Q: What sequence folds into this?
């Protein structure tokens, strides 16, 4: 038999779980928006950080889920609603999806997701006990919220339609038939030849990644961090792990281009891609430093190197 003291203790714990859910909702929105804005404003430093960033569609979905955490967390912590147990079940399902998503993206917030999941289960167990106590259930009400059943319907349908519209724009923007490069703000529509070239770039990048899981140590100094498909180029992202300061100060992007030209213009597979109009780009980030280097070659570079003039 539960004493009044036990009941009050359980009520406090359930209320705390609601406060935690509420706080996690706001934290999720702030962190995801911050990461997304950082990836847009300073792509260079963001890529070197190794953090995972969702696209705009993913951010909107996250905000939608987090807003449910905020709304239901607020209701749970008040502990006056007869549907509180149902709210806990809803956020439990969302927390499970949050945990799976965290693991899938590298588990960088896995501890928070796991803690949230455990806290909700604990709160739900206590709430189930409280719902068996007549003295407690008799105090529960059916409050009128701004988001009643009709409000929830409008909110969910409206958000869904917004996501569909955003997804449509994203899909249109990433189709091989349209191209936006970092060198120009104008949109250049691809010809069939450009589209076929882009498809080959994507296939090549996927093949390279499947053959050599990344990151990959190219040598004692360089680590290949990523391979990126661009509309007219393949970009290799390298990290320079260890090099003495004197040697580093003497290096320039021209030195890296000479090295890239020497290697690429002697490789038959690369020469074939260059002949097809595909640019090869290398980007180098110095570990524990903001210093970067970049090099790229086209067919013309290898012709001047007398490799494609045959």
A:
């Amino acid at each position: 038999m539960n004493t009044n003291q036990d009941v009050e203790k359980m009520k406090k714990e359930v209320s705390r779980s609601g406060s935690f859910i509420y706080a996690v909702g706001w934290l999720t929105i702030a962190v995801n928006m911050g990461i997304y804005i950082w990836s847009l404003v300073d792509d260079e430093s963001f890529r070197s950080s190794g953090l995972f960033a969702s696209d705009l569609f993913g951010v909107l979905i996250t905000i939608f889920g987090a807003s449910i955490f905020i709304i239901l967390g607020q209701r749970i912590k008040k502990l006056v609603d007869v549907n509180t147990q149902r709210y806990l079940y809803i956020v439990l399902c969302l927390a499970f999806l949050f945990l799976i998503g965290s693991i899938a993206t590298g588990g960088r917030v896995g501890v928070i997701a796991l803690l949230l999941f455990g806290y909700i289960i604990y709160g739900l167990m206590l709430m189930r006990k409280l719902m068996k106590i007549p003295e407690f259930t008799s105090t529960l009400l059916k409050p009128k919220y701004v988001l009643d059943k009709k409000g929830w319907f409008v909110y969910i349908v409206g958000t869904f339609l917004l996501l569909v519209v955003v997804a449509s724009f994203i899909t249109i923007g990433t189709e091989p038939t349209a191209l936006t490069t970092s060198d120009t703000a104008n949109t250049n529509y691809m010809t069939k030849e450009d589209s076929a070239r882009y498809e080959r770039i994507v296939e090549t990048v996927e093949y390279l990644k499947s053959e050599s899981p990344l990151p990959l140590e190219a040598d004692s100094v360089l680590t290949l961090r990523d391979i990126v498909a661009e509309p007219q180029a393949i970009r290799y992202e390298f990290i320079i792990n260890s090099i003495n300061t004197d040697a580093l100060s003497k290096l320039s992007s021209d030195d890296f281009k000479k090295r890239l030209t020497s290697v690429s213009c002697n490789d038959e597979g690369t020469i074939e891609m260059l002949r097809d109009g595909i640019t090869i780009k290398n980007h180098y980030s110095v570990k524990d430093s903001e210093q970067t280097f970049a090099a790229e070659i086209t067919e013309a570079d290898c012709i001047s190197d007398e490799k494609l003039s045959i």
User: Anything to note?
Assistant: The two ends are 92 Å apart (CA to CA). The chain has two domains: 4-143, 192-304. The domain at 192-304 is CATH 3.30.300.250 (GMP Synthetase; Chain A, domain 3).
